[in-house]
Amino acid sequence: MHIHDVFHSELLRSVIDDSLSDQKNELSRSIVINDENEWKIDNILNSQWYQRWLQYQVKWKSYNNDFNWYNADDDEFMNAQEMIDEFHIRYSRKAH
């Protein structure tokens, strides 16, 4: 016999007192460059090749860690070439 730990959705109920309701990340203000919103990169965390595209994971300034991958040739990295170069000097075995 195989037991599954499931229950009917009617047994669910809303939380009456949300103790975390006031804990929200404040969005940092973006920088406007050439009439485009931009956000500061705090750190480059990782790089990878994905289907012929070089991608980076980044830590955006004033935000929690972002586990999304961004294509290196997209606008996100247009003004971050120095930070990219430093990342590849530090981690020479990472994808580049």
Features:
single chain, 96 residues, mainly beta, OB fold (Dihydrolipoamide Acetyltransferase, E2P), three-stranded antiparallel β-sheet, two-stranded antiparallel sheet, 5 strands, 10% helix, elongated
Topology:
Blueprint: E1 31-33, E2 36-38, E3 41-50, E4 53-60, E5 70-71, H1 81-90
Antiparallel strand pairs: 1-2, 3-4, 4-5
Q: Hey, roughly how much beta strand do the residues contain? A: 25-35%
Sheet of most strands = 3 strands, antiparallel
Second-tier CATH architecture of the domain at 30-96: Beta Barrel
CATH topology grouping of the domain at 30-96? OB fold (Dihydrolipoamide Acetyltransferase, E2P)
Q: Class of the domain at 30-96 in CATH?
A: Mainly Beta
What's this entry about, in short?
It contains 1 helix and 5 strands.
Textual characterization of the structure:
This protein is mainly β. The protein has a domain at about 30-95: OB fold (Dihydrolipoamide Acetyltransferase, E2P). Helix content is about 10%, strand content about 25%. It contains one helix and five strands, in the order βββββα. The chain has one helix spanning about 80-90; strands spanning about 30-35, 35-40, 40-50, 55-60, 70. It has a three-stranded antiparallel sheet with strand order 3-4-5, with helices on one face. The chain has a two-stranded antiparallel sheet with strand order 1-2. β3 and β4 (about 55-60) form a beta hairpin. About 5% of the residues are buried. The mean pLDDT is about 75.
